[in-house]
Amino acid sequence: MRGARIGLSEAILGTILLFTFLLMAQLSPQFLTSTNLLQLPRFVTEVGLIALGMTLIILTGGIDLSVGAIVGLAAVVLGALYEAGVPLPGAIMGALVVGVVAGSMNGFLIAYLRMPPLIATLATMAIFRGLAFGISQGRAYRDYPDWFYTLGQGYVGPFPTQVPLLLGAAIVFAFLLSKTPFGRKIYAIGNNETATRFAGHDVDQVKFLLYSLSGGLSAMAAVLLVSRFSTAKADLGQGFELDAITAVVLGGTSISGGTGGVWGTVLGLLVVGAIRNGMTLAFINTDIQQMAIGAALITAVTLNQVFGSLRLRRKGVRTTG
Amino acid sequence: MYVDRARQLSILAFLLVLGLALLAYAPSFFQPGNLRDILVNASYLFVAAVGMMLVILTGHIDLSVGAILAICSTAAALASKAGWPLFAVFLLALGLGGALGFLNGLLVTNLRIHSIIVTLGTMNIFRGALIYWTQGAWIYDLPSDFRTVGLGQFGGIPYPVWGAIVTFALFAWILTQTSWGRSLYAAGSNPSAAHLSGISIPKVVLGAFVVNGVLVGLSAVLFSTRFSVIQSNIGYGFELLVITTVVVGGVHIFGGSGTLLGVALAALLLSTIGTALTFFRVSSYWELTLQGLFVLGAVALDIMRTRRSLQRGEV
């Protein structure tokens, strides 16, 4: 099952990655330096953690548009708790709990009330972002103890702190997907939800857990982001849903669920990260970066659609870990 | 067709309660100038919501309408500054909206990608293109004839409200009396039956996206002509407000059913709430949360309705 996919879609993704790196090197001479490339994981880890959770959700045929809003909410909760006198470890725990609760609210709406994921998370996106603005009243929370900044700005050996974190998370998720019954259930739901239900699996529970997990990962991203920027604000994480979904889809996971995996997402993430980082180094406005990523998203879905149907025609339907 | 009288009546009841509360706690809300503002706000919202209604009826969605509104507003303002006559400015905004809607529709129907992914992409592409074009600059010193649309009136009724009335009348006819209007409902409620009865679903969907774009262009004209400055981030988050209006108005989120009257009432409700919050001294930072809760409530009602009718064997 695994070997089948190494080939066409990995080759396409590899080519896209190479092309992006060359293009960015053209845009900015600083891009292809070892100092910058070592820094790259620093910028992609927040979106990366979210994209890992998003991979599992998209594999089941769902989607989570509220991840960026949860980042904003969790960041504000962290800042507000700390400002109210809660010690920082407690404030971080508070932010993580809020993230999981927000995610489980999505899970409840989708798994148990059977709302379509698109519209449920579009609504909770507004609710969570609104709560972040309402709680903070638009203020920024600053002045954390020094040790907190090592998380987002420090190093492990020559690598930014984020490298082992992202790599560890990716390995855990890859193992979860390919080696555990839980992972097999995720693919099964994406391929045929009704059949999975009839086979006696608790589909609703799997979905509930995945959306809760996505909320928790978004809150972790928020903690990293606040540590990296030294500031917690309600508008943090705006547009993260676009970057995360683009990374997942670029990585070859089918938007309708059932096929794809974690390592593709990691490669897709490098493409998104390289576009952001390279264009920032070339002093290109973030709105125009958004444009490039939006275009990458549509191109990626189109390519997957085209090659996906070619593959189906040639080999019949298959799933991959 | 299922006509959701219950939804229309509950919105009216909600408006009534809100009105009574305002009468008791903030009677200054009922100044003529304020009521006029609310009606005008409801008008451009309604026009865009009719477009979104067409798209949602077919079972799709368009997240790029805020970006389309921004592009059309900016283009109209720049053309007007360059000395274009008013009708040419209008045609430009409507045409540009239609063209962008055509692009969305083409991607949705030809690539068979879900519309939420396509329009999430085009939303960012359109915004980026706009910033690339204007370099983020605001547009000042708009000519006075540009602003006559937003600020003027005819027969005591502001022009934007006329725009909404004409849109209502036109689409009340289109949705109930023309075969294209009926096929929108058919495509959303039972695509395979619609296909078998000879309706070309891609054509219907493409048409819905184009007309949606044109209506967003019209909404942009009604909206932007009220300001003396057009900011580069105009219409940010507008897509959510429009989707909220449509869903609260009783248009079924899976497509296939919904009425213009419900959408019109919902537009009135949402523009009233936006202003009422200020009069209740609630920070506008909470408005977004309230919108989200409205969407969830409306969708939950939809789902309960579907389950009930499933149990009764009506579907």
Structure summarized in a few sentences:
By secondary structure, chain A is mainly α.
Q: Helical amount among residues of chain A, as a percent range?
A: over 70%
Q: If you average the pLDDT of chain A, what whole number results?
A: 90
The fraction of residues assigned to DSSP E strands of chain A is under 5%
Ends distance of chain B? 12 Å
Number of domains of chain A: 1
**What global shape of chain A is seen?**
globular
Q: Tell me about the largest β-sheet of chain A.
A: 2 strands, antiparallel
Low-confidence spans of chain A: 1-5
Structural class of chain B: mainly alpha
Using DSSP, what is the number of strands of chain B?
A: 2
Order of helix and strand elements from N to C terminus of chain B = HHHHHHEEHHHHHHH
Going by CATH, the architecture of chain A would be Orthogonal Bundle
Per the CATH scheme, the topology name of chain A is ABC transporter involved in vitamin B12 uptake, BtuC
Describe the secondary-structure layout:
The complex is a heterodimer of chains A (321) and B (315).
Chain A: H1 8-27, H2 34-59, H3 67-83, H4 88-112, H5 117-136, H6 146-153, E1 155-156, E2 159-160, H7 162-179, H8 181-191, H9 193-198, H10 203-229, H11 240-250, H12 262-281, H13 286-315
Antiparallel strand pairs in A: 1-2
Helix pairs in contact in A: 1-12, 2-7, 2-8, 2-10, 2-11, 2-12, 3-4, 3-5, 3-10, 4-5, 4-10, 6-10, 7-8, 11-12, 11-13, 12-13
Chain B: H1 5-25, H2 32-57, H3 65-81, H4 86-111, H5 115-134, H6 144-151, E1 153-154, E2 157-158, H7 159-177, H8 179-189, H9 191-196, H10 201-224, H11 238-248, H12 260-279, H13 287-311
Antiparallel strand pairs in B: 1-2
Would you give an account of this structure?
The complex is a heterodimer of chains A (321) and B (315). Chain A is mainly alpha-helical and 321 residues long. Chain A has helices spanning 8-27, 34-59, 67-83, 88-112, 117-136, 146-153, 162-179, 181-191, 193-198, 203-229, 240-250, 262-281, 286-315, and strands at 155-156, 159-160. In chain A, helix 1 (8-27) packs parallel to helix 12 (262-281), helix 2 (34-59) packs across helix 11 and helix 6 crosses helix 10 (203-229). Chain A is globular, with a radius of gyration of 19 Å. The termini of chain A are close together. Chain B is an all-alpha fold and 315 residues long. In chain B, helix 2 (32-57) runs antiparallel to helix 10, helix 2 crosses helix 12 (260-279) and helix 3 (65-81) packs parallel to helix 5 (115-134). The radius of gyration of chain B is 19 Å and the shape is globular. The chains are: A mainly alpha (321), B mainly alpha (315). At the A-B interface, helix 5, helix 11 and helix 13 of A face helix 5, helix 11 and helix 13 of B.
